[in-house]
Amino acid sequence: MKPASTLPTDTELVEALMRAAIEAGSIILAVRRRGHEVERKADHSPVTEADRAAEVLIMKRLAEAAPGAPVIAEEAVDAGRVPDVGREFFLVDPLDGTREFVKGGDDFTVNIALVRGGAPVIGVVHAPATGALYGGVVGTGAFRAEVRAGMTAERRAIHTRPPPDGPLDVVASRSHRTPATDAYIARYPVGELVSAGSSIKFCVVAEGKADLYPRLGTTMQWDTAAGDAILRAAGGKVVT
User: Fold this and answer.
1) By the 8 A CB rule, do 54 and 60 touch?
2) How confident is the model at residue 58 (pLDDT cuts 50, 70, 90)?
3) Distance of CA 192 to the CA centre of its chain
4) Which of 4, 22, 147, 201 gives the lowest tally of CB atoms within 10 Å of its CB?
5) d(Cα 42, Cα 223) in Å, to the nearest integer?
6) CB-based contacts of 9: which residues, under 8 Å, 6+ apart?
7) Nearest to 116 by CA among 219, 5, 14, 239
8) Which residue has the higher pLDDT, 183 or 5?
9) DSSP code string of 98-167
């Protein structure tokens, strides 16, 4: 890590993470336009050129923004490169929702988070296909912006909504829906139930468009860290 006196502030870091996510999103869309092969990892999950190229770019930008800071990134870990981390490190999923990307859907995201003291404190989630970009700094607030021509515009603060007196609006996974998830949802009175892919579900709750996002079963911290930070910065809560 750089000496404490030259470390970027959280405000500077979230801006750097946003720029990296937008740039990575442009790479992902370029790969989709020209076509790509789909490979399978050891766990049978899909991976493409877009995942790898976006991660290379993000790693480069993080090294520029915070030289020496450890980065745990999905494709690097898959290749066996796992750095030692201390109190502060980055968690990166360069293309969350690869299944949606492969199918030609829009619900895939770039996730970048800073973890400090065991909890995500800064998060950026960018959905390249729709142009939506969410950011948050815990203790400061969360926002949504629209990306146009590689730049952000119309940034506005977002916040979770108060718990309703009546039915809950629920957002659930499109690709990882399980009987256990359905059984969990059935415990609550449900108004609207929306299916979505990737970490965009955290952001739907963060901007007050849903009340609950249940996820049961296997997941990875790079899938959840950025959305976790944004949701908590928006006044929400992530439970285990």
Assistant:
1) no
2) very high
3) 23
4) 4
5) 18
6) none
7) 14
8) 183
9) HHHHHHT-S--EEEEEEEETTEEEEEEEEETTTTEEEEEETTTEEEEEEEETTEEEEEEEE-PPPPPSSP
